[in-house]
């Protein structure tokens, strides 16, 4: 079985595919793997948003329920997570529905039961 450039040198494959796109050489594109990689990029953006939201919610809960332990570090983390979320949404507005979709879900993504 012959190995493809995609399997043996991913970076080289990306350079080759980019060059083919730039030159209009669409017949020789590795379409199946390009589709897979583009979809993976989208999932990565969504995961980053979810991770940022989790960090923000966790620190906001600590801020709310542990006022004696509040610190500048927590405050900085809250500010940074908000800034990063805003930037993600600004750069990819189609992520916005995922903000609403996360409401009412636990950090694992499962629906919360009994309002917990």
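Sequence proposed for the structure above (116 residues):
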């Amino acid at each position: 079985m012959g190995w493809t450039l995609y399997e043996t040198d991913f970076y080289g494959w990306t350079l080759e595919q980019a060059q083919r796109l730039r030159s209009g050489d669409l017949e020789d594109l590795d379409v199946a793997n390009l589709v897979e990689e583009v979809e993976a990029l989208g999932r990565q953006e969504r995961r980053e948003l979810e991770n940022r939201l989790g960090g923000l919610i966790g620190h906001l809960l600590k801020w709310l329920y542990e006022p004696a332990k509040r610190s500048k570090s927590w405050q900085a983390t809250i500010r940074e997570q908000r800034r990063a979320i805003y930037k993600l949404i600004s750069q990819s507005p189609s992520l916005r529905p995922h903000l609403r979709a996360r409401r009412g879900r636990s950090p694992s993504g499962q629906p919360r039961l009994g309002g917990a």
